Amino acid sequence: MPVMRAAYASRFDADDPLAALAVGERPEPAHPGSDWVTVEVRASSLNHHDLWSLRGVGLSAERLPMILGCDAAGVDPDGNEVVVFPVVPDPADPRGLSLLSERHPGTLAERVAVPRANLVPKPAGMSFVEAACLPTAWLTAYRMLTTRGRVADGESVLVQGAGGGVATAAVVLAVALGKRVYVTSRDPGKRERVAALGATALPPGARLPERVDVVVETVGAATFDHSLKSAAPGARIVVSGATAGHEPVVNLRRVFAMQLEILGSSMGTAAELAELLDLCVSRGIRPVIDEVYGFSQVAEAFARLHSGRVFGKVVLDHSA
């Protein structure tokens, strides 16, 4: 049986997810349908989704071993440079979809199989390493701001928690869209770095100079009360994560008195990914990259992500 090198979850370890990571040979990707194709992966990037998979969250034991990874850019069978959209229709999932590495093998491998409709042309002026940052965190941030947050109808944005992939992407995109952007972080170093991106950086819970029209919330319970208090009348609080608690106390009087909208958001569509790529090209936007590792350093890359010290995306260059 033909094999390829890959990084995969061999088991689950809730306390030490890095211990469940394996790197080695796995079978070449199969095609579940006639419309699927194989992409030669040139670069991929890591997400906290990968760490949750290693912990056993969102991935069942009967699917082990599972190749990890949602994000990739590479070359299709016709020689076209493409970005992989990682959402696959999945009638068996309550969401009606799944991400690569949940039911179908992921992108942290030499090759990945996806439906042909999941291939989005990579802009010529964007490197594989840059493009591999976009399909999950950046797409999530783009949808939060545009489709869900309707940022075009507002002037100001609050991003809770600087440094993570989604939060950093939201800062860069909101600034590029001409909005006043405020960001919170406990880390003075991260506040300094986010200020360099064009945002006003503040400690958690700080009073903002104004109430904002859109809040990008990925932290959860630790920041949600501040998000409510910082929201202008009719504002949209868009939630795509809960890294610091998923059961916040919500002051409903503030919600109805201020006519706030609390909106969930997850990933985006292939069309939105194409829009994001176009925006990056037209505005000269490039993803914020924390560190680039060769594929042979995948364990080090996971350790970096797990450290919590990242600012931007951790990327794997498959040519190295």
Summarize the structure.
By secondary structure, the chain is an alpha/beta fold. The protein is built from 9 helices and 18 strands. The longest helix has 15 residues, at 134-148.
Oligomer: single chain
State the helix count.
9
Secondary structure tally: strands: 18
Overall helicity: 25-40%
- In terms of per-residue confidence, which ranges show pLDDT below 50 for 5 or more consecutive residues? none
Biggest sheet details:
7 strands, mixed
End-to-end CA span: 25 Å
Classification by helices and strands: alpha/beta
The radius of gyration over CA amounts to: 19 Å
Can you write the helix and strand succession as a string?
EEEHEEEEEEEHHEHEHEEHEHEHEHE
Mean pLDDT: 96
**Shape designation:** globular
Strand residue percentage: 25-35%
What is the secondary structure topology, with strand pairs?
Layout: E1 3-9, E2 21-27, E3 36-45, H1 48-55, E4 66-67, E5 71-75, E6 81-84, E7 87-89, E8 97-99, E9 111-115, E10 119-121, H2 128-131, H3 134-148, E11 156-160, H4 165-176, E12 180-184, H5 188-195, E13 200-202, E14 212-217, H6 224-230, E15 231-239, H7 252-257, E16 261-264, H8 270-283, E17 289-294, H9 298-307, E18 313-317
Parallel strand pairs: 11-12, 11-14, 12-13, 14-15, 15-16, 17-18
Antiparallel strand pairs: 1-2, 1-4, 3-5, 3-9, 3-18, 5-6, 6-10, 7-8
